[in-house]
Design a protein that fits this description.
heterodimer, A: 127 residues, mainly alpha, 86% helix, B: 238 residues, 2 domains
């Protein structure tokens, strides 16, 4: 749907923007209503991403021919950059946090395995 | 006519774009490497990649971005195109492709022509080499022989199979866009020249992948329906 509207509705940017809006809102409703993810954190991240895309879409709406004043468009551009950076930063923080947690868990698991192995060898030696 | 960005403003925006690009590359690469080492899941990474892809593809709309946003997003588009192996020169040499992008935004994102093969880039190579393997493994699983089924199940559970399969699912969006772009340039050319070969190949690939990208959601929906109705709900409760 997104691909079709982007390519085949090139001459009708307003319709494309409305189509994006409809798709993103549908995704937010779907994520909230059907709960398709096993973990709540994943659902939260996806909702955050969709809301961020919705905000970017509202900026794109403002950048169509409706707003013609150059200074206003420049301010909208800065706002759009800020929203995008916020979205990317959120994703990167979640990703980095997950990596640290995974590495820590693997390290703890490895330590536990070594301790169990040592205990088994100790028991075997005492026998 | 949008106002031109002041040199200082342009410098700030390009510095910001460089920082964001660097951060994305560092976190995504380290995440992929760490998850590969500890045999973890790449789900969150794929989720973030998809977000980034949708974000940059949204900017393909024919609107005039202000200069600051234009500088920032052109940097982001380069990183989101994910073309791992440079194949562009090869395809241009092989098929004598005309380079006429739909618009400047499409060109920035790596869709420099209206040919399916060129626009998918290294993805076509991945598909060419690995898709037959995945199909063969899936078909062997359908044989009425227990050992063949076991072999197929074992292969399907391997990290390689899952990795390639996830990669193809993640690239669904690029396939959709490339198929839609290809639709704007379908024509049959007779003769044996390289240009005719490129044009006819584009017609064939675009038609095939249009069918595939339409069929995938339908097949997935039927599969989920079958899974929930016949496997989850029909399970005898204790």
């Amino acid at each position: 749907m997104l691909a079709f509207s982007v390519v085949h509705l090139q001459n009708y940017p307003n319709f494309t923007v409305f189509s994006f809006n409809f798709q993103i809102l549908t995704m937010i409703i779907l994520i909230g209503h059907t709960e398709p993810f096993k973990h709540k954190s994943k659902a939260r991240l996806e909702t955050f991403n969709e809301i961020n895309l919705l905000l970017v879409n509202y900026h794109i709406t403002s950048l169509t021919d409706w707003v013609r004043d150059g200074d206003t468009r420049n301010i909208i551009g800065w706002s759009m950059i800020a929203v995008t950076v916020l979205g990317i930063l959120g994703n990167l923080i979640v990703l980095a946090r997950e990596q640290v947690a995974d590495v820590w868990l693997s390290f703890k698991f490895w330590k536990h395995r070594v301790a169990v192995k040592e205990r088994i060898t100790e028991l075997l030696e005492t026998k | 006519m949008p106002p031109q960005a002041q040199p200082k403003e342009a410098d700030i925006v390009s510095a910001l774009a460089n920082v964001v690009q660097g951060a994305i590359t560092a976190v995504f690469l380290s995440s992929a490497i760490i998850q590969f080492i500890i045999s973890g899941s790449l789900n969150t990474l794929f989720g973030s990649t998809q977000y980034l892809q949708i974000l940059v593809h949204m900017l393909l709309i024919r609107i005039m971005l202000p200069t600051n946003a234009s500088i920032f997003f052109s940097g982001l588009m380069k990183i989101a195109s994910f073309d791992l192996i440079p194949t562009d020169d090869m395809y241009v040499y092989l098929f004598d492709i005309e380079e006429t992008p739909i618009s400047a935004n499409f060109e920035n994102l790596g869709y420099e022509t209206r040919q399916f093969l060129y626009n998918t880039g290294s993805l076509s190579l991945v598909m060419l080499f690995f898709l037959p393997f995945l199909l063969i493994i899936g078909l062997i699983g359908l044989l009425p022989c227990q050992s063949a089924k076991n072999w197929s199940t074992k292969r399907k559970q391997s990290l390689f199979f899952k990795g390639v399969f996830s990669f193809l699912i993640e690239s669904y969006m690029i396939l959709c866009i490339a198929a839609c772009i290809g639709q704007t340039n379908v024509s049959w050319k007779s003769g044996f020249s390289l240009r005719a070969l490129g044009s006819n190949l584009n017609l064939f690939l675009t038609s095939m992948f249009t069918l595939i990208v339409v069929a995938i959601p339908i097949v997935v929906a039927i599969g989920y329906y079958y899974y929930f109705v016949h496997i989850v709900y029909d399970k005898p409760t204790k």
